[in-house]
Amino acid sequence: MKLSVKAVLWLALYCLMIFAPLLIIYIGPRPAGREFWREFAVALGFIGLSLMGLQFIPTARLPFLSSVFPMDTIYFVHHATSLASLGFVFAHPLILIFSNPNFAQFFNPATSPWRVLSGLLAVAFALILIGSSVLRKDLKVIYEPWRMTHALISVVTLALALIHIFKVDYYTAMPLQRLLWIALPLLWLAAIVYARGIKPARMLNKPYELKEVRPERNASWTLALAPVGHAGITFKPGQFAWLAIERSPFDIRQHPFSFSSSAERKGWLEFTVKELGDFTRTVKDVKPGTRIFVDGPYGTFGPDFHDAPSYVFLAGGVGITPIMSTLRTLADRGDKRPLLLFYGSPSWEDVIYREEIEELEKRLNLKVIHVLEHPHHEWQGEKGFITTAVLDYYLPEDRTNVEYFMCGPLPMIQAVERALQKAGVPMSHVHSERYEMV
Amino acid sequence: MIRQYSIRFMAAIIALAIILSALVARLQAR
Predict the structure, then answer these.
(1) Domains and CATH numbers, chain A
(2) pTM score, two decimals?
(3) Which chain B positions have a beta carbon within 8 Å of A42's beta carbon?
(4) Strand pairing partners for A382?
(5) What backbone torsions phi and psi does residue A387 show, to the nearest 5 degrees?
(6) In chain A, what residues touch B8 (CB-CB under 8 Å)?
(7) Distance (Å, whole) CA A10 – CA A338
(8) pLDDT tens for each residue of A128-145
(9) By CA distance, what is A35's nearest residue in B?
(10) What are A207-260's pLDDT values in tens digits?
(11) What ipTM score was computed for the predicted complex, to two decimals?
(12) Is the distance from CB of A129 to CB of A119 less than 8 angstroms?
């Protein structure tokens, strides 16, 4: 089945699951209606809850979803739908109060009946859940404890919301409606069981051993892994995996990294990691021999997913890793298609894989344009950032028969996306990988 | 590009949710 057809089918199913509560309200035998605003508030509450519960599906890293949609887009939709669900969940009690101020008496937690209190607590937990996620970086909350708390609060929030629905028992009184509010949570639960039980159990049988930790330029380190007792996973260049380093695969503390090695090198995986955060600063201290579990491959980034007669790559700093995997793979395959790499780095000394890229220029039909933010005095090449002027100068005349892949920090991606657009590149040919997903 | 599509998709979902909720409420209301 074509990728676009699959995508449309998944989106249709996604919409159906969001709007199922509304359909069931109307299709099923239903209790007598009440005034408009009360019904509207209930409908919004149902939508908010179904949206919130569906969040377990994109975050379960389901292979059939991640083979259709880019993982950063899946996470973007997760963030956006979570915010929308919070809006709907908040609108539910607010509209009830505004439509009938008598409802306010139920909102005192000291005297409120359990059927209302569970709903109030669910809204409060939802606010904490999403507020702590949006403000995590500003509040300087450490990623790993946040992630564990995030998973726990999300389950508590949904459990409270379901208690609220069943205790109020207005739209759960009819069998079809009751069935829906059992089936939807079972679906959410299935996603949790898969992500936290089935998948880690499979990973447990396929461990990897850290063979070496190699220093790279610009405070980056390459981890080289070999499978223990199995053939190892196969991946396509540009894809990535979640690593559980020195931890059980059941541990929620896993981190996504792009493969940097050649996909043609079987039984050997490399990941290059830059010291950017709390976890990545510790990577260099991991000892060879350490047991590592790999969850992957994921992603739809790279030439194997987008065939074209020639390719342009745009990398910023450690964003070179998926592109390096691609270049190494294409070299191993003897690929002779024209390739152009725009590579932005802070300085000449910070160009990760500098020497190997020079070697790859000899093996591939590859031209590399280094763009340095802080060049040394003798530097003759491009300076500053990858701008429209730089692109215009080097890109081929025909910019439509090319696929473009870029990877780097978010500001770089946004700036380069605009520059490509100005340079007349069709945006449907531009693919990006953001390494700030969560 | 895909980000633009997902923003539009999200906006459509939110708008549809509000419209359908109002519609269901209107049909169901006394």
Answers:
(1) 3-202 (1.20.120), 206-298 (2.40.30.10), 303-434 (3.40.50.80)
(2) 0.84
(3) 25
(4) A371
(5) -105, 175
(6) none
(7) 35
(8) 999 999 998 888 888 888
(9) B29
(10) 999 999 999 999 999 999 999 999 999 999 999 999 999 999 998 888 889 999
(11) 0.94
(12) no
